[in-house]
Amino acid sequence: MKKTFWLLLLLICTSAAAQQSTASKYVQLYKDAAIRQMNKNGVPASIILGVAMHESGSGTSKIAKYLNNHFGMKGRNNSSEIKSAYKGYESTEESYEDFIGALKRHQKFNMLFSKFSDSDYMGWAIGIQRGGYAASKTWARQVIAIIKKYELYKYDNQNISFIKPVDSPQEETMTSQTEASPTTVYRVKRGDTLLDIAKKFDTSVKVIKKKNNLRTANLRLGQKLEI
Length: 227
Known about the structure:
The chain is mainly α. It has 2 domains: 2-158, Lysozyme; 163-227, Membrane-bound Lytic Murein Transglycosylase D, Chain A (Roll). Helix content is 51%, strand content 3%. The protein is built from 10 helices and 2 strands. It has helices at residues 2-41, 45-56, 62-67, 92-105, 107-110, 112-115, 121-130, 139-149, 194-200, 205-211, and strands at 185-187, 224-226. A two-stranded antiparallel sheet has the order 1-2. The longest helix is centred in the N-terminal third of the chain and has 40 residues, at 2-41.
């Protein structure tokens, strides 16, 4: 029984290490392409990489390997190696650009380009989910978890309002699932209200007040809030 347990534990550890290695290699291979697309189109490089890694298993899916399709976009392909209804691309970066193009073409996502900066990966992830990109209610949290785990936010154009995300032991669980919701620290800007911030991060005024021990809704310019 002991032998079986240790063998199972070894297999789990080996699998986790392999997954970590695959993800790290993916980031090194494609971070420059993601940065180019960010500078060209305004979508954070962390979002491009994080969504692609989530959707393609860090480039291990069949359509990623044979079609350079990292987002599951439907369309034509000329591949002789795989029969698929998914679109084929000449390169991974072309897939990145088409994903961004799809966001621009749909009204529910197009507004994100003017609403969020190329450093606000949290806002982008939540906005894309709320626009109906994925059926899963935990999709944004999963993408944000990938961004945090591999520190993909390092590749974004970090402006003065950006603060490195931190994990809080007092985070509230957003669902009954065991996965805790990601936490970030937001610096209050001119004109911000608690209601505006709550809507931006898909949470509530009550939760923000509780996390930050706020007795009133009054905010100070530059004040740091855990979201």
